């Protein structure tokens, strides 16, 4: 008998962060994920997660909830599968765009991830089978499962980021991303590199910068030129989302590879960046790009065009999204850097019985089991859901 979705529950959460996190586009003291809980007709429950960001995809918490009600609820009522391959086919067909902006990538991610979790568990098929279903040579275990996670530093004063670097180095981290995008950029960058010492030039550590689109083209040129002699691995989203041709001109004169983040939401964005030879790398984030399947396809597209790609994350991800990110790393080879799996390092609470986070040196256990391999506790969902859940029978 085909398995169908019987009930959808949405949990808009608010989880305090252990410390405020600031970058050029936002400042946060709490995580505000939306958790999607889908129950299938056999009683199996699956979970997904998303973090809408207006400055990333144009989506907000309200627009995501409205899109799920208007666009995705009708789609869920027709979804049915007896085999995992059928489930993957139906899940893959979930829309990424609507008739009018903004796109549906954040909304889609929550439901796609919940459905993948539910059908994997119900049909007792591991996520590894996604590689065979996509049918791409080289995709699948072990992927980039052995990659180390990076430490991410907010746009704080130089003394504070220097202290943070030293603490992270004591924990064995060797890859770092620093938020830039204000008048304190130069002193902040040089303070971090002083704290890292000779390690970046010896290849024992890396530093990349993320401006979150805070500079205009001329400001970006000036900053990149001023840092030309520094050991910087890449610069992420130096200018706002917009014309790929401007990024191309900036890339031509840049001493470092440029990485697209806010400029990379859809597959059309990716094609545009590739046609214009605008960047040297993609920052792929499951919540931003529509879920696991679109994220894998973006990585494959980048690989075909000899671009680098990293797994990024949203500030405040719970263990649901961190676990899904670990499956991305298991399935996709050649990931340059990885972010996420911060768990209770950053959050004051989580939604799973065991928080998914990396260990010493940024290493993490490889994902295992059915679904995302995490055990969500509804008591924790209720604790962090101030207005209560929204339930939709299907």
Q: How large, in whole angstroms, is the Cα Rg?
A: 20 Å
Total number of strands: 14
Indicate the overall shape. globular
Main sheet makeup: 7 strands, parallel
What is the H/E order?
Answer: EEEEEHEHHHEHEHHEHEHEHEHHEHHE
The CATH topology of the largest domain: TIM Barrel
The CATH architecture of the largest domain would be: Alpha-Beta Barrel
* Residues in β-strands, percent: 15-25%
Structural class: alpha/beta
Low-pLDDT segments, ≥5 res: none
Q: Largest beta sheet: what is the strand line-up?
A: 7-8-9-10-11-12-13
* Multimeric organization: single chain
End-to-end span in angstroms?
17 Å
Helix content: 25-40%
Overall description:
- There is one protein chain.
- The protein has 394 residues and is α/β, with parallel strands linked by helices.
- The chain has two domains: 3-133 and 376-393, 2-Layer Sandwich (Enolase-like, domain 1); 138-362, Enolase-like C-terminal domain (TIM Barrel, Alpha-Beta Barrel).
- It is built from 14 helices and 14 strands.
- The strands form three sheets. Strands 7-8-9-10-11-12-13 form a seven-stranded parallel sheet. Strands 1, 4, 5, 6 and 14 form a five-stranded antiparallel sheet that branches. A two-stranded antiparallel sheet has the order 2-3.
- The longest helix is centred in the first third of the chain and has 19 residues, at 105-123.
């Amino acid at each position: 008998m085909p398995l169908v979705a019987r009930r959808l529950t949405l949990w808009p959460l608010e989880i305090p962060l252990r410390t405020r996190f600031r970058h050029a586009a936002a400042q946060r003291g709490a995580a505000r994920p939306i958790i999607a809980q889908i129950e299938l007709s056999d009683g199996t429950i699956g979970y997904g997660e998303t973090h809408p960001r207006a400055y990333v995809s144009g989506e907000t918490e309200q627009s995501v909830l409205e899109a799920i009600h208007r666009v995705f609820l009708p789609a869920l009522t027709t979804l049915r599968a007896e085999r995992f391959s059928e489930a993957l086919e139906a899940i893959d067909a979930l829309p990424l765009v609507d008739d009018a902006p903004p796109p549906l990538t954040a909304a889609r991610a929550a439901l796609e991830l919940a459905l993948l979790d539910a059908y994997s568990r119900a049909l007792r098929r591991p996520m590894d089978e996604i590689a065979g279903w996509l049918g791409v040579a080289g995709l699948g275990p072990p992927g980039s499962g052995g990659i180390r996670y990076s430490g991410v530093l907010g746009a704080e004063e130089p003394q504070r980021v220097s202290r943070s670097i030293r603490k992270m180095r004591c924990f064995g981290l060797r890859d770092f991303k620093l938020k830039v995008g204000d008048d304190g950029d130069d002193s902040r960058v040089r303070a971090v590199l002083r704290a890292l010492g000779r390690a970046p030039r010896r290849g024992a550590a890396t530093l990349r910068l993320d401006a979150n689109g805070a500079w205009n083209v001329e400001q970006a040129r000036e900053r990149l030129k001023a840092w030309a002699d520094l050991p910087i691995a890449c610069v992420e989203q130096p200018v706002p989302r917009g014309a790929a041709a401007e990024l191309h001109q900036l890339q031509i004169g840049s001493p470092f590879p440029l990485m697209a983040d806010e400029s990379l939401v859809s597959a059309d964005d990716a094609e545009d960046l590739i046609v214009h030879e605008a960047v040297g790398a993609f920052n792929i984030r499951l919540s931003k790009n529509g879920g696991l399947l679109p994220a894998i396809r973006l990585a494959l597209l980048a690989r075909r065009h000899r671009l680098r790609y990293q797994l990024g994350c949203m500030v405040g991800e719970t263990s649901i999204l961190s676990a899904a990110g670990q499956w991305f790393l298991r399935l996709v080879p050649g990931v340059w850097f990885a972010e996420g799996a911060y768990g209770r390092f950053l959050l004051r609470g989580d939604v799973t019985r065991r928080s998914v986070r990396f260990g010493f040196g940024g290493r993490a256990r490889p994902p295992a089991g059915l679904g995302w391999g995490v055990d969500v506790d509804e008591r924790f969902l209720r604790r962090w859901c101030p207005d209560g859940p929204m339930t939709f029978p299907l």
